[in-house]
Amino acid sequence: MKTDFVLTLIHRPEMAPEYAQKITQSGKKDELGDDSLLDESLQIFLFQQETAHKNGLKTTIEMTYASLFSDEVVGLAKEHHEKYGDEIALTLLGLPCPQFEEKYKTKDFCIWMFSNEDKMAIVDDCFEFFKRRFGFYPASTGSYYLDAFTINYIKEKYPMVKCAVATCFEEGVKAYHTTNNSWYTFMDGGPWAPWIPSKVNSAMPASDKSDDSGIVAIPHLSRDPMACFDGNGSNFGTHPQNVLRGMIYEDNELPYFFNLVDMFIQQGKYNDGHAYNMMFVGPGWLNKLGRWEAPYELLKKSYEDALAYYGKLKKEGRLRDMTMEEYADYYRAEHPDYNTPEVALWQDILYGSQKQYLWYYDPFLRCCLDFNQGGAMIDLRNYAAKLDIPVGIGTGNAYNASYPYIIQANYRAGYFTHYAGQGTLKSCRIKYGNEIADLALVRTMATYSKVDGNTVATTDPFEIKFSAGSLKMQSRFTFIKGEGKIIFERIILENPNNLEVEIEDYLVGTYGKEEYSLDMTGITLGIDGASKVEIPYLYKNRKLEGKNGISYAKVPQIDTYIEVGGDDTAPVAEEGIAFSPMFGLIAKKKCSKGVLKSWLKLRKGN
């Protein structure tokens, strides 16, 4: 299958560069309206544009509010649109400037954090100002994050908008801690690749035409979905200056950046031949005084090297560069089915280990499997719940736009915990007598396939050892398209000693957005088979067991119903304690050959 690899290259002229209000190395304070700062920012923007055009790449020029006041920048944008085919768009980043601060009497700058009234006023201000400067409304816009309210308002008032930068993958608690608890951009739980946002919550893909917000969304940078999940995502993306900030370079060379681009190309194998990259760098990142520990010369070289690589790929016929508006049309044409999933089978390209993740999302769920832990599920979000999470001043939720998790092995522990209490995980235990082997301790790799339109990941065979003998096994994971259901198969390939083992496919879950436990009161646990039994969650460590049927949890806090069942399996539901505020759902059976086939299904709670 030939991969169609698309690049969207975005530049934003910042007449008030990001992070500009600071004390410089010379002791002088940069001011937003300082003439020398504006001139430097303009020269860096020109350098970025020239570098792109020199490598045969078109750009999307996202005008900031501040840049709309500059006749020179407006003129340059018009010239480059005519000469190179660059798109002129509007970003809702770059709001801070003397004019904005005077008009709105604030130093806030994240559009999603404003009140709904201010969001509408700012959108109208920016769009109408853009129209006065260029004679037309933009077809593309964006921010670090755009909430559903803002997207819906933009699309209603400015229906010509087709595309928007709408989220930054896994920017939240980890990025917050890395900035000494000072960077309040919480938006975990959304897509890492382009999607059509739901009208209800922009973090979720739309489920059908009635749920379609009317735009195609792209991520703010293409992030490494392994390094980003495990560590601070702000260091691991297709942003050469971010890579420098992460100190992922040697002798002024950035091989990780090129490996990251190549790994994104590979994802076309798992997505019907479609692969995507986004690069978005403002002038502030190429500061003449240097940035982080890197001097300007290295910042400049890293940018030139990155665009030269994209230019080389284009000349070889391995890359197509598109503006945001062009990509929106392309995406719509290539993704007519709302239930088409996005898949990433990702290798470790940072440390060179054999670690491998599989990421999956569709309109029903988002999850991640870690094959360094036997295919254990380390992240799970229920998109089927369609959670409406207003964000901004006046909503009671000023800044946290994250979509809640059921499983998050970094925030709420996974298999490896300090205490005997389990962390959130979906894995499998094999029991023989008093001996227990958890597949989370198995190191394996997986291969991808498509079966009857469903996404399938199959592990390499692995060995489970007991004192009386060993078994050769394999796991298979099938994501059922359009159902919010995952099938787990634990296959006994060889059992030379004919050991009868008990296989337990289990889920340990909870809910939240950050690391801290929230109140579990109100959750209901149950089993349903020959009889139905339910208990309210009271932190009493109780267990429900049946001979057949399903186990389930109702989590009203996130409007979620979680079901675990299987073929000829016994259900178990387990309540946690205050020190281990989780719940367990299990499907188990005894066997010496064949397969334990179980499933996990998510739906809206009510």
Sheet with the most strands? 10 strands, antiparallel
Radius of gyration: 25 Å
Mean pLDDT: 94
Structural class: alpha+beta
Approximate helicity band = 10-25%
Portion in strands: 25-35%
Spatial separation of the terminal alpha carbons: 42 Å
**Uncertain spans, ≥5 residues at pLDDT below 50?**
19-27
Number of helices: 11
Total beta-strand segments = 29
Shape summary: globular
Task: Give structural notes.
A hairpin with a 4-residue loop joins strand 25 and strand 26. 52% of the residues are buried. Helix 4 crosses helix 5. The chain is 21% helix and 30% strand. By secondary structure, it is α+β, with helices and mostly antiparallel strands. The protein contains eleven helices and 29 strands.
Topology:
Layout (H helix, E strand, L loop, with lengths): L3 E8 L23 H20 L5 E4 L7 H14 L2 E4 L7 H7 L11 H19 L5 E3 L5 H10 L5 E5 L5 H6 L37 E4 L7 H4 L9 H6 L9 H12 L7 E8 L14 H20 L4 E2 L2 H11 L7 E6 L8 E6 L3 E6 L5 E7 L24 E2 L16 E8 L2 E4 L7 E6 L2 E6 L2 E5 L2 E12 L4 E10 L6 E9 L14 E5 L3 E5 L6 E3 L4 E6 L4 E7 L3 E8 L2 E12 L2 E11 L2
Parallel strand pairs: 1-2, 1-7, 1-8, 2-3, 4-5, 5-6
Antiparallel strand pairs: 9-10, 10-11, 11-12, 12-13, 14-15, 14-21, 16-17, 17-19, 18-19, 19-20, 20-29, 21-28, 22-23, 22-25, 24-27, 25-26, 26-29, 27-28
